[in-house]
Amino acid sequence: MATSTRRARERASIRERIIEAALTVLESEGTAALTVRRIATEVEYTAPIVYQHFANKDALVVELVAHGYRLMLDSARHAAEEPDIELRMVKVGSECVRFAGEHPHLYQIMNSPAVDAEERTRAAQPAIDLLRELIGVWSRTHDVVLADFDDACEIIWGTVYGIASLGFLGTIGNERARHLVEQALRTVLAGWRTGA
Amino acid sequence: MATSTRRARERASIRERIIEAALTVLESEGTAALTVRRIATEVEYTAPIVYQHFANKDALVVELVAHGYRLMLDSARHAAEEPDIELRMVKVGSECVRFAGEHPHLYQIMNSPAVDAEERTRAAQPAIDLLRELIGVWSRTHDVVLADFDDACEIIWGTVYGIASLGFLGTIGNERARHLVEQALRTVLAGWRTGA
DNA sequence: TAGAAAATCTAACGACGTTAGAAACGAGGG
DNA sequence: CCCTCGTTTCTAACGTCGTTAGATTTTCTA
């Protein structure tokens, strides 16, 4: 039956419209406005519709988190064209911080303790993979033998995340945070290069 | 009137009992359980009592955040007896991460974007002051002229916070996070020492 | 075009933060 | 001792939240 495939298409379409609407609400009005009723209104339905497509609100939020990581990775890839590997890493980090500054509310739920750690890790995996590749290339081109590769990845990840967070946790602006992350990354890499 | 002073004492006492109860609930059952009704039950009162002592729930949470920073500073001071300044900084950072691991829910609200940035900064000020002093002593004893002192402070702060957060955001344990922050701090300081 | 199946809505539940107004309590003067 | 007055505390409610059951409307098939 052609109808059933069309039905499936429609179902998928409204599912994506819900995600899109949720993103719009989140980015424009923040976490507090991200309610099921508000999202449903945005797609011109009533609240229970959301539960036809997501087990609960958390499941929908997980989709937003995944979307956020995809978006951030896209931003990072922009910077990944820089030929010099060290500069490339710095630019990627800087681009992540810019992303955090441009999508503060999205970035917040991407790192909210409320979302399941495993789900977040799954969503972040491609970004983690990029980081691992960058560090791998960097260590090879600089003939650096890192004491522990995984440790190095976590340290870079934590540093970028921490400094990006200063943007909305403290009182520093986005351009300053970007400057800071660039400096921090340069310093850490310099430290590793000189065998600290 | 002696009665009025006793009344004031009682008022202050119940205020502190509310804070204490809120802390107990938060630490033992997490953010989701931290409701006004739950807290009131804990002190054997009904919900509206809370509003006699705090303008709203957020104001109470701010008190918890302040308490958290005091507690963390106490932990940090333990490590501040180490004579060698660089090792002292590493130990202080490590102690902060340990604190985050031992009080995960408290640490979470201490860095929740939901609490006012200004209030948090005020609560964190003593900790920030300690950090500034440490970096000041460090740079003098190592004859390092930092490109920008404030930048250096923010970088250290962000690094420690970021790596501490990996503890509950990702899937790494507390002892690993502590090891990571120690390495990260050593690396950054080494980078600054060699003028990166 | 009647009846089955799917999509969607209405109405409600319990829990949340919060507030207004009633009830209970304590102290001081007749 | 009782009665008033001010304070403390509670009861009851409002509006909003996430979520679900059941009715209702729409859509397709036979």
From TrEMBL, chains A, B:
Domain HTH tetR-type span(s) in chain numbering: 12-72
Keywords tagged on the record: DNA-binding, Transcription, Transcription regulation
DNA-binding region(s), chain positions: 35-54
Gene3D superfamilies per record: Tetracycline Repressor, domain 2
Record-level Gene Ontology MF annotations: DNA-binding transcription factor activity; transcription cis-regulatory region binding
Key word Isomerase present: no
Name of the molecule in the record: Transcriptional regulator, TetR family
Organism this protein belongs to: Lentzea fradiae
